[in-house]
Every structure is written in C-alpha cells, then in structure tokens.
Amino acid sequence: MSTTTDDRLAPILDELKLDLISKNHVVENASKRKEIARTFILPTAEMYAYATLATLGDDVYYEPSTAALEAHVAKITGKEAGLFVSSGTLSNQLALRSHLLQPPYSVLLDNRAHINKYEAGGTAFHSGAQTIAIEPANRHHLTLEEIKNNIIISSDVHFAPTEVVALENTLNGTIMPQDEILRISEYVHSIGVKFHLDGARIWHVAVETGTPLKELCEPFDSVSVCFSKGLGAPVGSCLVGTKDLITKARRFRKLFGGGMRQTGVLAACAAYSLSHNLPQLVRVHALTKRLEAGLEEIGVKILSRAETCMIFYDPSSVGVTYEEIAQRGSAHPEPLILGGSRLVVHIQTSEEAVEDFLSIVRQLAQEKKDAGFVPTDDAAAGAFKDVYVRRAANTPK
C-alpha cells in the first residue's frame, strides 16, 4: 500500500475507532457489583475469569465449549440433545416452531405464562398458532380437568386443533405439583399432543423440593432452561429434547437470526453458574421467606406466597402505594430500585437490602397510621394480581 493511500485511509480509520475500556471501569464495575446486592443480578469477576479459559470456535459450525454445555444440559435433564440460545424467549419459540408442522393449530397454556404474555406475540408471529390461555381456578396452577375442558381435539373445521400444551415451572415463583404434571403428561401424550416446559427457573424447583432435574423434566417432550435469570450468567438459555427436535430447532435458530459465533465465553459463564451459583438458591429461598414474614408482620397483604424466590404483595392494606415505596427506595442512602407488586430475591441479594426494604415499608405504614389510616379486611383490597409492573429504564419515576 502506498504512502498516499495510507494518508487517505488514516482519517477514515481514526473515525471508526472505539475504545470501550476505561480506567474508570474498574471503579465503576466495583460500584455496580456493590449495587447488585440491592437491584439486579450481574456476572461476577470470577465468572468472567473462568470464561476467558473457554475454547474458540464458531457455533454455527462447531464450538467445543458450547457443545459440551449442550451435551451436559441434555444429560442432566434426561434428553437426547440440547441447543444453546441467547434467551428464554428464543428457546420457547424455537420449541413451539419445531413441534408445530402445518397450521391450523393451537397451543394451550396458562394465561399468566411467559409465552403468552411476555414474548411479544411470538407464538402467532413465528408459528402462526392460536393460543388458548386458561386462567387456573385455583389461582396457582393448571389442572388436568382444565386441560381436558379447553383442549381442542375436535375435527370440526371451525377450530384450530391443539398440537402443544405448554406449562411453566416455576410460574411467578410458584411450583407446579409434579403429580399434576404427570397426570397432564399422560393425557396429552395419549392423544398425540406434544408437551413443552418453560423451565427458565426449574433449578428453583429442584432445590426447593429435592427432586432430581431429570425427574422434573421427564414428562415433557421439550424443556427450556435459563442460565441468566436465577443463576447469574450474562446471557443464555438451553432448549433440550430429542435429537430430531433439536436438529430442526437449530435450523430455525439460524432462520430466526439466532445463530451465534464465538459462544465459548457465554457457555463457560453458564457452566460456571451451574457449578457455583445454583447451590446458592437454598439461601435465596430462605431469604425470600424471611422477606415475606417481615411484610406480614407489618400488615402487608401477600398476594402470592414465597414458594421459591418471588413474592407478590399489595401495600394498600396498610395505606401505602407502590409509587411511595419506589420513591422512598430510590432516595435511600444506598438506593433500592423498586416498582410494582413483584419482589424477586436472587443469589446476590443481601440481607441488608431486604432489611432496608422492610424498614421503608414499615416507616411508610407507620406514617399512614399516624395520619389516620385504618386497615380494613376488605377482600377487594389485596385481590390476587398476576400482573406486575415493568418499568423501562428511561421511564420517568
């Protein structure tokens, strides 16, 4: 290359440069890792250090660390094969698209399910499937009777036959009884319908009930598990099922634009989370129950009890609003980022953060009481809410 060409390229190359690494990042990351005890879960320095030892390879072709993770997750769930993907939403949608062949068809699920409410209508968009969303009468989990009463197995041309029944465990932090899952599995398989599990937080079920993961997953034709939500990996879920299903899902992953390249570092983070973070869920569940007990002591209405890592609550029983709690939390010397009816405890939630939250609610409740608020037993106040507030990062408080 001539000097003239070099001179001409220099300003172009300079314009394209980007240095994301700053000396301040060390301090900023240390501060951010302190904040996680009071906000959201983040990867640890130890996890990142482990990830740097992962293999190099292109996952669209073959990446050794990723392939090892997929094989391991398939083994521990009792399935033939696995597929590492970027998110739980992609994993669920790939499962449905791979099970469903030729429309018209329908997918039957709980009306509160992530697939139904928080995947941007993906079931209709990707698979052209109608969803049949059922509200459980017991407000906890679907029953076999409800499945039978709503599933479409008719040859009537007016209806879209049900080809997949999808469950979620945990759902809003609650554990679905395994005996009910087995009853549903036996029925849906007897009529030739596929059975999928959104098991993003299935790890919590295994830890809380002492049930092997393989046993929890055995009734299902496909299962999606997540490494980021409860286990602290930066990215990733895994879809498991038969070899044929995963081969088909891998093709759809590419079609959806979900093929990834150097995934070894992400797979290593997921592996680290299974070995080092999963055992911490025992403490998470205990801390969640402690949080629930503290709220009840104050007089706050519990909408959904702490079976694993989540609580849904309604502070109106003591005259307090979610907005007041959020404002007081953000103004705390060590801020708490709060909003809505859902409280989630994770592996990096500190006991101090829980105590600070309870202190905020306790103080607000006392202020309301001093101002003349009288708690009532009105059933309407504290009726079950399955919806929680999701506030975008740039939404004004």
From TrEMBL:
GO terms for cellular component: cytosol. InterPro entries: ArAA_b-elim_lyase/Thr_aldolase, Low_specificity_L-TA-like, PyrdxlP-dep_Trfase, PyrdxlP-dep_Trfase_major, PyrdxlP-dep_Trfase_small. NCBIfam families: GntG_guanitoxin. GO terms for biological process: glycine biosynthetic process; L-threonine catabolic process. Keywords: Lyase, Pyridoxal phosphate. Transmembrane segments: none annotated. GO terms for molecular function: L-allo-threonine aldolase activity. Its cofactor is pyridoxal 5'-phosphate. SUPFAM superfamilies: PLP-dependent transferases. This is Aromatic amino acid beta-eliminating lyase/threonine aldolase domain-containing protein. It comes from the Eukaryota. The modification N6-(pyridoxal phosphate)lysine is found at residue 229. It comes from Candolleomyces eurysporus. Residues 42-312 form the Aromatic amino acid beta-eliminating lyase/threonine aldolase domain.
